[in-house]
């Protein structure tokens, strides 16, 4: 299976550190170290322009380094300049070589600093390159190795098992910090991805305190050949855990090109906080901007996020980009050129009661309105069951049906507060009817109240018509509340709404209330009294 070029390419660069140092059980003379490193490079089928070792500073310098990779990852690594400061050969030996009898456990130090310049890795899947990489204060945890094959053998570098070996090493590695500059990832089957800077603070065994990515860009074309770009000013993540992803890369368990992606991958990265700023997508329909996107206070149950807060601010969408079904024309007719949208909500889950809640949900559009939602669901026990499954698995395996039959709606409150959208719709209706707005709304409300009298057998529909009549005369807010005495399953709700819609309001104990804007009525209050 083909894999995209990315983290495996970056991990492969770590193999360079083992070359030469692997053989150095103790610091040698200037010539001895250089000769040992030269031998390691040539034995691996590589080449170089120059190697030097500064004994006083305990620093290795290599320029023009070229290393082949064969087997599944056939290609080559090129490094313009490598600078390794204060390496600890004994630490490298214990970290990567087969252990000696009686070796104590713990962790070993690898180096103080590693600087790489003008790096590229290329193979049939594409090319990764970057201007610089700086790593600081590396160490590695030791593990019990039951046999002499447990260390990384240098021939892994050319036999194709490099990915697996380096992934194992990455899960034992610790770094005080790492910075990558001017990176370009160019998979053969996708558009290039450019990154100005990637900075990791405190990496340990696949867990990172802070990740910052600045200046992320992708340029390409749509299926119709139109140019499109995506840029993200900055991405910041706190308490990021990529150990599952590194393990999956090493074991070659990521989906290949054309293979379906699981809804919740077992290897999905986990984080406590994620922030993205300055997102811009440009295509044939215009430019879509997002000022900020944040995910905070995330809580996981196994591999799936079951709690946390999401906030999306400053989403700007030109109406031309809202679709080809007539919605753009409708929005333009209402006076909208650009939609400005904010979204936020909190998801909470109590695994002791299997209750999931949507809290503080708010979807607002400038000069449109705000939709607020609060909901509680019971018997939510499916989280662990869907990990690793695709949409096809859910449908064909019966999981989706079991979820719909199991999850129950305990209650829901939905509120819409108008900020001119309803008034614009009414104004458009009045214009189409050739009537003044006040007269149009008064007549419309009268029709609704007249229709309400026909629903004496259905109290909810009668109340809904009366509430709608009141609301259009002074648009403020309207609230729907579902408070079923016996919480129905989602499957039961779908069946009732489809097969017996007139029973839905009674089964769900549905009520409707309005809060009118008495300070800005379309139909004056005195008219209502007449």
Instruction: Describe the main β-sheet briefly.
Output: 18 strands, antiparallel
Structural class: alpha+beta
Question: Can you tell me the overall shape?
Answer: elongated
Distance between the termini: 76 Å
How many distinct helices? 16
**Portion in beta strands:** 35-45%
**Helix proportion:** 25-40%
Record field, number of beta strands? 18
Uncertain segments are 1-12, 22-30, 145-160
Over the alpha carbons, how many angstroms does the gyration radius reach? 31 Å
The averaged pLDDT comes out at: 85
Could you characterize what this model shows?
The chain is α+β, with helices and mostly antiparallel strands. The chain is elongated and about 100 Å long. Among the domains are: 1-186, no CATH class; 412-529, no CATH class. Helix 6 (162-170) packs antiparallel against helix 7, helix 11 crosses helix 12 (437-452) and helix 14 packs across helix 15 (501-507). 27% of the residues lie in helices and 41% in strands. Residues 1-12, 22-30 and 145-160 have low confidence and may be disordered. The longest helix has 16 residues, at 437-452. The chain has helices at 7-13, 15-18, 30-43, 89-96, 156-159, 162-170, 243-250, 327-333, 391-396, 399-406, 421-433, 437-452, 459-473, 490-499, 501-507, 525-529; strands at 50-54, 59-69, 75-85, 107-123, 126-141, 173-187, 193-204, 207-221, 227-241, 273-283, 286-301, 304-318, 338-350, 355-365, 369-378, 408-418, 477-482, 510-515. The protein has 16 helices and 18 strands. It has an 18-stranded antiparallel β-sheet. The N and C termini lie far apart (76 Å).
